[in-house]
Structures are given as structure tokens and as C-alpha cells.
Design a protein that fits this description.
CATH superfamily of chain A: NAD(P)-binding Rossmann-like Domain
Strand order of the largest sheet of chain A: 3-2-1-4-5-7-12
Largest sheet of chain B: 7 strands, mixed
Strand order of the largest sheet of chain B: 8-9-10-7-11-12-13
Oligomer: heterodimer
Structural class of chain B: alpha/beta
Shape of chain B: globular
Shape of chain A: globular
Number of domains of chain B: 2
Distance between the termini of chain B: 21 Å
Number of helices of chain B: 10
Largest interface: A-B, 23 and 18 residues
Order of helices and strands of chain B: EHEHEHEHEHEHEHEEEEEEHHH
CATH topology of chain A: Rossmann fold
Number of strands of chain B: 13
Helix content of chain B: 25-40%
Order of helices and strands of chain A: EHEEHEHEEHEEEEEHEHEHHEHH
Largest sheet of chain A: 7 strands, parallel
Number of helices of chain A: 10
CATH architecture of chain A: 3-Layer(aba) Sandwich
Helix content of chain A: 25-40%
Radius of gyration of chain B: 21 Å
Distance between the termini of chain A: 44 Å
Number of domains of chain A: 1
């Protein structure tokens, strides 16, 4: 049944595809964009799209903006900035949204979380990561994103525990797509070069269009499917490549940075030594770049296994595109956007 | 500017230890206050037995709860009245947006708590006077944070002045370079404008207190009778009152004329916060963001060799401070060592019943100076 779906973060990398997928599936969409955003979202003929201009870090206008909404897909989060910035953009924003939903009698939520919440450091290589895997319970040494997303999940659960509220938490893996094909799970920038870290680990990828479809399916089902309420569901694609396989697919299609290679065991050992020295010599007070912090490094490069079985079972979802198709579509989208931008500037 | 106020309970008001402290407002600066109160401030160390953090309060329950858990507070609150009633703090740190300081602070004073308040404490000196009157009426202390005055670089320069190493003070310059108009920064965010935009100097009001107390730290006895202040909005953003200040102050002190220059720039880099004091015999400078102290003064060897000795001494000092600052960066030391040292002095004073490190007279002199910089008569 068609729903009116309220989508936060609608102009973000993932949000644009979720809006599109929701509209294509026949839903009405209220797309939340920040007050100063100049991004224009387009709807096709006969599609119902309303842009709502609010900033979730403030409660101003939130309740009113939720009028006549059936379900919320909450994508908005701060991915950059210091801890206070990300806390405000992710945790306080979610707190405000949930309070407004309660006041506006909106009781269905797709809470978008992340694979970053899992405890990678204390999980053995080769382990299958699924929804029952332990989350990080001491994330102080993780990045601000993981720390704030963990707090966000607590808010989701607390809100979902209230009578009549239904929440399903989706944890996508690394979402990739146009302009985000060469990403942080392949390595790290070191000056003008890119340090490739590891080759054999399977990547927990979720192509952005596949991921958007899963989110919309969850939104369509949560108001009527009691089996979905309070569930956590991982979202990853079917044919997950290794780091080397994925890099080869991408490098064959787009220009990528100059790279040099460091085996994962070498970097893992070096980071462990830095952590031990920090603990013993500096009382653990020193702060080093992420590639020298085991807690962060393991979350990105450890060889683990992943499954989307629960997503398929509960959401009746299947990723539409394989990795190769996804990369090819992304490249085409990038080229189309470039052409559109060139013709726009010519017309000016 | 030179008026004196009733200092409220400046002596004889000892407090039983540990002092019960609470924090209202969990924005960015609260992390520095909470680090001190929980004994994690590197410049100060443990506060065990002296201070007990009894509550954190914020309108956001998630923020209050998180801060409370992170810093080991006894509880968290979303209502100030409940905090005051339940936790009964001896001291409340008011760290909320400036326009709320007077209202929240007065509630705390009336409930019997001393108040330590972030800057700018009020919009203007008249409001500060009534705030101070409320403190006096309730027999409580009210102290505004003048944190950078307690940073080691500024303290070292003050010692040089007090020792006469620079001669009589002739010029004081305070200069801040910060890209406040950056749309990704907290001041330049167009989506959720900072409350500081509503202050008389807009975003620059967040820094005027620093300008005032740092200038007066080296010229407290100077009567600045000629002031010209150029407040500009070079970038022309509609949400900014000003993004630039260039102020010149000229006055007479006990040892002759003194010039002050206060400079805020949003379009010069890199980020810097320098204080320079020039005396009749030498000068000294520090950067509070990347701490060092350069001192040029008469050295052994007379006027011929002094310049060379100064070069060698300052070169060595810069190398030492470069290594030290690398260590500070790795160990996550912030420029807020002065805040921690100031709070340490404040709590010691409260326990002993002695004068607090920032007095009502200093607060009022700073606030009156800011008022004068903003008055129409001195604006260029």
C-alpha cells in the first residue's frame, strides 16, 4: 500500500536514491532538506514530492512538518566534524526527530544505522558478521561516526520500546555509488598517494540503489508487518568482492589515485605496537591518525564474512544490481552528471 | 570603566569539601569544564576529595545523559529547577548561550549556588551590574571565565612585565585570526545560526571578552581616553553583523602613554591568537593556539650583542616549543589549559574563603570596555 514517507537527509548521497526509489514505488514523499540547501529534487509526472525545510538539530517546525506522515526513513547524520558536531548532527537530531514523531502521532520508523557499530577489534578474522554479532561496547577509541551512531541506535531502541511505536533498524555496509567508488575500505590517502591496505578481505558493500530499495521496502512494510518491529537488519549486496577484485573492477573503469600497497598483517602489527606503546608509555592519552589505531583499522580492513539472509527473509528484498553492474551504472551516472553540468554552463 | 562594585562575598565564606559542582549546558566548551571537574584536566590533575560532580543539565536529555555518563556525574537533568532542588550544588557552571546567562545564573544564585559563567557573561555592563547585585544579595560568588589570562604564555608575559624586564608597558596588541564565516564552522552555519549572532557585536562578541581582559591584564591602570573601533563586515554575509574588528585605544597610565590594538580577522590565516606587549625596553609575544613565548629584551653583552643573544635565545625557545607542541598535539592538550588553571584557583579560593581569580571589578572593567568599543561615538 502506498505510504507517505518522510525522508531525512534527502539530498545526501543515499537520500537522493531513497527519494527516487520511494517515488518510483508509488509512495508520496516528504523530503527533508536543510534550510540553506540549494539542491532541487525532481519528481516524475504524477509523483508526489514535497520538500520540507527544517534542521533536525532544532525542534523548530518539526512537529508541523510531520503532519499526515505514515512512516519516517531517518537517514540524516553528521559524517564529518569533531565529536560535538557529530553528536549534534546525529544524536541530538535523532532525539529531536523522535520527540516530534511522538507529538505528531507518527509511530513508524526506519532507523538507518551502519555496519560501523559492530565490535571489530574483538572479533576473530573469518567470523560471520550478522545481526547477532556484538556491537562495540567501549567505542571511545573508534571514530566519532561509530560513537554517535551507537548512541543513535540506543535512541531508536528506547523510542521503539514505547507502546504503539514500531522501529526497524537497518545497518547498511559500505554504501558506494557515483562519486564514491574509490573509498575508505580500500585504504587511506597518504600525501599525494593512496595506500592500499590488504587485498583478500571481503568488502561489506551495499550499492546505493540496492540499499535504497531495501530502505523503501522496510518503510512500506513496517506499518503493517509486526514481524519487522524492533528488528535489526544488515544490508549488503549478494556478490561481495574482495578488496583486490573490487579495485580491479573500478580501476578498469575510472581514473584512480596512484597507489602503493601495504599488506594487512603488516599494518595491523604496526598499529598494535603503537597502541601498546601509547598505553604503556603515555597512559593511552596520545591520539594518532586512524590508520595507526587498531580499533579503527580493524573496522575497515579485517577479513570477515557477511550475510544479507535476514534482509532477504524479512524484507523480501534482493539486490537488483551485481557489483559490476553497480560500478558501470555509477560511472554512467557520473558521466551523465558531468555532461549535464557542462551543458548547463554552456547555456549560461 | 573604572567603577568599583561591591565584591560580594570576597572573604570569609569557606565551603566544606568536597564542593558539589554542576554544569548547565553541554556544548563544546562544557567538555573542558567537565574535564576539570572530573579530574581529567592535564594541567591540573586530580580533584578527588575537593570536587564532586553532582549533576549535568541540558535541554537535550541525550546530551545531558551522555555527558553525565562520560564524566561520572551523579545524575543528569533537563530542568534547572530540578537540578538545583535535587543536587543542591555549591557551584554551578553556566555554559549555555550568552542570552540565557543572566536568567539561569540568577536562578542558581537565588538557590544558594555560586556561579561560574562562560563569556560573554552578559550583553552589556548594565546587565552585568544587576547580575553582580544579585550575587551580592544572595551572598554568593559570580565569576566570568577569563580563561586565556591563565594560560602559561600570558602568565609568563605578565611576570616579565611585573619584573620590569620589558620596561614600562607602551603597547598591547591582541590579535585573533579565525575563519568564522566558514559555512562548515559553528559560526558560519547557515542552517542553524549560532545564538551569538544576536549579540551586539554578533559573532565577534564571542571574542570581545578575551580582547578586553587580555588588554587590561597589561594595562589595568590605564585610562583609555581615545578609542576608535572599525567594525566591518568584509564578506557581507547577511547573517553576520561584523566579521572584522580593528580597534585602536590610546590612554594614559602611571608610566606614560599606552596604546592598545585589538584586531579580529576572519580572512587571514593560519588560525592564530597572539598577544604582544611592547615596553620601553623590550617586547614579548605569545600565541595561545600554538604556545610559545618570544622575548626581546636587554641581554648580557650590551646593546651590540643583545640582538644576537635574543635571536639565539628565541630560536632555541621556538625549537623547544615546537617539540613541546608536537607532544601537546599527540596528547590532545587543548588551548584551554588556562581554563583548567583558572578553575583550579577558583575552587581553591571557594574552599579557603579567599578572593576568586577573576574579580567583579575585572569583569565589569572588561564589560565596560566592550561597551565602549561598540558605542557609536568610537565607531569608525
Amino acid at each position: 500500500m502506498a505510504q507517505t514517507i518522510y525522508i531525512t537527509g534527502a539530498t545526501g548521497f543515499v537520500g537522493k536514491y531513497v527519494v527516487s526509489a520511494a517515488l518510483d514505488a508509488g509512495n508520496a514523499v516528504k523530503a527533508v532538506v536543510r534550510p540553506s540547501s540549494k539542491t532541487k529534487l525532481d519528481a516524475g509526472d504524477g509523483q508526489s514530492l514535497e520538500q520540507v525545510r527544517v534542521d533536525l538539530r532544532s525542534r523548530a517546525g518539526l512537529v508541523e512538518s510531520l503532519a499526515d506522515v505514515d512512516v519516517v526513513i531517518h537517514l540524516a547524520a553528521a559524517k564529518a566534524g569533531d565529536f560535538a558536531t557529530q553528536f549534534a548532527g546525529t544524536v541530538v537530531a535523532t532525539e529531536n526527530l523522535l520527540a516530534a514523531m511522538t507529538e505528531a502521532n507518527v509511530s513508524n520508523l526506519v532507523g538507518v544505522s551502519t555496519f560501523s557499530v559492530y565490535d571489530y577489534l574483538n572479533t576473530a578474522s573469518g567470523t560471520l558478521i550478522d545481526e547477532s554479532s556484538p556491537v562495540d561496547t567501549a567505542p571511545e577509541l573508534r571514530d566519532e561516526y561509530a560513537r554517535t551512531k551507537l548512541l543513535q541506535e540506543d535512541l531508536y531502541r528506547s523510542w521503539g520500546a514505547q507502546e504503539d511505536n514500531n522501529v526497524v533498524i537497518l545497518r547498511p555496509g559500505m554504501i558506494y555509488g557515483p562519486d564514491n567508488l574509490w573509498h575508505a575500505l580500500l585504504g587511506a590517502e597518504v600525501g599525494p598517494k593512496f595506500m592500499r591496505i590488504g587485498a583478500k578481505a571481503t568488502l561489506p558493500l551495499a550499492y546505493v540503489e540496492n540499499c535504497a530499495n531495501a530502505m523503501v521496502k522496510a518503510a512500506e512494510m513496517i506499518p503493517t508487518d509486526p514481524a519487522l518491529a524492533s528488528e535489526v537488519i544488515n544490508i549488503v549486496d549478494d556478490d561481495l568482492p574482495t578488496q583486490a577484485e573490487y579495485a580491479e573492477i573500478v580501476q578498469a573503469r575510472i581514473d584512480t589515485p596512484d597507489t602503493f600497497f601495504v599488506p594487512w598483517p603488516v599494518l595491523r602489527g604496526a598499529a598494535a605496537s603503537v597502541k601498546a606503546a601509547n598505553r604503556h608509555l603515555l597512559g593511552g592519552r596520545a591520539k594518532f591518525p586512524g590508520i595507526a589505531v587498531p580499533d579503527r583499522l580493524h573496522a575497515r580492513f579485517k577479513a570477515l564474512r557477511y550475510t544479507n539472509a535476514k534482509a532477504k527473509r524479512l524484507l523480501s528484498w534482493t539486490p537488483t544490481y551485481t557489483t559490476k553492474q553497480a560500478v558501470e551504472r555509477s560511472v554512467k551516472f557520473e558521466q551523465d552528471a558531468k555532461s549535464a553540468s557542462t551543458s548547463d554552463s554552456r547555456s549560461l | 570603566m573604572n567603577s568599583s562594585v561591591d565584591p560580594s562575598p570576597q572573604s570569609g565564606l569557606t565551603q566544606a569539601l568536597p564542593l558539589k559542582a554542576a554544569v548547565v549546558g553541554t556544548g563544546g566548551i562544557s567538555q573542558e569544564h567537565l574535564a576539570f571537574l572530573s579530574g581529567r584536566a592535564p594541567a591540573v590533575g586530580t580533584v578527588a576529595g575537593r570536587i564532586r560532580l553532582v549533576g549535568v543539565c541540558d535541554l537535550s536529555e541525550a546530551s545531558a545523559s551522555y555527558a553525565s555518563q562520560q564524566y561520572g556525574a551523579s545524575g543528569y537533568y533537563t530542568d534547572i529547577a530540578e537540578l538545583l532542588e535535587t543536587a543542591k550544588p555549591d557551584v554551578v557552571h553556566v555554559l549555555t548561550p550568552p542570552e540565557t546567562h543572566l536568567g539561569i545564573g540568577t536562578l542558581c544564585l537565588e538557590a544558594g549556588s555560586h556561579v561560574i559563567c562562560e563569556k560573554p557573561i552578559t550583553d552589556n555592563a548594565a546587565d552585568l551590574k544587576s547580575f553582580l547585585a544579585s550575587a551580592a544579595a544572595n551572598d554568593r560568588h559570580l565569576m566570568e571565565s577569563h580563561n586565556y589570562r591563565f594560560n602559561r604564555g600570558v602568565q609568563q608575559m605578565r611576570q616579565l612585565v611585573d619584573d620590569g624586564a620589558l620596561g614600562a608597558v607602551r603597547e598591547v596588541e591582541v590579535r585573533i585570526s579565525l575563519p568564522v564565516t566558514d559555512p562548515d564552522g559553528r559560526f558560519g552555519d547557515r542552517n542553524l545560526p549560532s545564538p551569538i549572532h544576536k549579540m551586539p557585536a554578533g559573532v565577534i562578541h564571542d571574542f570581545t571578552t578575551h580582547f578586553g581582559y587580555l588588554l587590561l591584564n597589561f594595562s589595568s591602570e590605564v585610562n583609555f581616553h581615545r578609542i576608535a573601533a572599525a567594525w566591518s563586515n568584509h564578506e557581507g554575509r547577511a547573517d553576520f553583523r561584523y566579521d572584522d574588528l580593528d580597534a585602536l585605544l590610546i590612554g594614559d597610565g602611571p608610566h606614560g602613554a599606552v596604546h592598545g590594538r585589538l584586531r579580529f580577522s576572519a580572512n587571514t590565516g593560519p588560525d592564530a591568537f597572539t598577544v604582544t606587549v611592547r615596553g620601553s625596553q623590550g617586547w614579548a609575544e605569545t600565541d595561545l593556539f600554538q604556545p610559545y613565548v618570544n622575548v626581546v629584551r636587554p641581554r648580557p653583552g650590551g646593546s651590540q650583542l643583545s640582538p644576537i643573544v635574543n635571536h639565539i635565545a628565541n630560536g632555541g625557545g621556538l625549537i623547544r616549543d615546537g617539540v613541546r607542541n608536537l607532544g601537546r598535539k599527540i596528547l590532545q592538550h587543548s588551548p584551554y589549559e588556562g581554563l583548567h588553571l583558572m578553575l583550579d584557583e577558583a575552587y581553591t579560593a571557594l574552599a579557603n574563603g579567599t578572593a576568586l581569580p577573576v574579580t567583579p571589578d575585572q569583569m565589569l572593567a572588561t564589560s565596560e570596555l566592550v561597551d565602549r568599543l561598540l558605542s557609536d561615538e568610537v565607531k569608525l
